[in-house]
Amino acid sequence: MKIGIITQARATSTRLPAKILLTAGKRTFLEHHLDRLARTGLPVIVATTTNADDEPIVGLAGEAGVPVFRGSELDVLSRFAGAAREHELDAVVRVTSDCPLIDAEVVAAGVDRYRAENDENLYVSNCLERTYPRGMDYEVFSVPQLLRAEARATLQADREHVTSYLHQNRGGDVRLLNLPWQGGGSQYRLTLDTEDDRLLLTTLIEDYAATTLNCADLVEIMAAHPELAALNAHIEQKKLGE
């Protein structure tokens, strides 16, 4: 079974424009993200748009040796389907590029469970229920399920958010499996969406060597330094459809 990670990336983010192209520790957040994903040992594909604004993303991915698929900005579901077809994947791990500290071992554990279940209709995730810090999220599902969603989804939110058709089980044939985390820290934001998120992530990377740490290490640091958690604790996550 060929499983690949597809990470969606674009420069026209609204709350913090070109956020993944900003730098911490002399590397862009996108480069940190791709470095972390490479540790899974799985093929990684960047799914970006055909917009000129996203040329720097294409360039950075190329420098990292990561292939790029370019598609619709708003119909991200079709972008993922196109990337999966082009790379002849059997299953997809979906992540987002605003997670520069995503833990490769967490992702790999989800993939291992998906392989072990051997069920085309299975959807595995660690975020159906929030037990991990934001920034560690992944979803694993089959390409046949992805292609069925592409063919059937009509709601704009389902086209934009890729997997809502699946995890809302709109087709009625998806088996959902959440893999929870017992290590705490679900209140923390290790994702990049605002300037305050950037400040926290930059501090973690530059002052705490966060790029060398796993999820448990990061939670331990956040718990030991409440002043870090306070930097972005007030940020509200965007809701589905926003």
Low-confidence stretches: none
Highest-level CATH class: Alpha Beta
Distance between the termini: 35 Å
CATH topology: Spore Coat Polysaccharide Biosynthesis Protein SpsA, Chain A
Largest sheet geometry: 7 strands, mixed
The fourth-level CATH homologous superfamily is: Spore Coat Polysaccharide Biosynthesis Protein SpsA, Chain A
Structure description:
There is one protein chain. The protein is of the alpha/beta class and 242 residues long. It has one domain: Spore Coat Polysaccharide Biosynthesis Protein SpsA, Chain A (Alpha-Beta Complex). The chain is built from ten helices and nine strands. The protein has helices at residues 29-38, 55-63, 76-86, 104-117, 143-152, 156-161, 164-167, 195-208, 215-224, 226-229, and strands at 3-8, 23-24, 27-28, 44-49, 68-71, 91-96, 122-125, 139-142, 175-178. The strands form two sheets. A seven-stranded mixed sheet has the order 5-4-1-6-8-7-9. Strands 2-3 form a two-stranded antiparallel ribbon. A hairpin with a 2-residue loop joins strand 2 (23-24) and strand 3 (27-28). Helix 3 packs antiparallel against helix 5. The N and C termini lie far apart (35 Å). The model has no long low-confidence stretch (mean pLDDT 96).
Could you give a short description of this structure?
InterPro entries: Cytidylyl_trans (IPR003329), Nucleotide-diphossugar_trans (IPR029044). It is built from ten helices and nine strands.
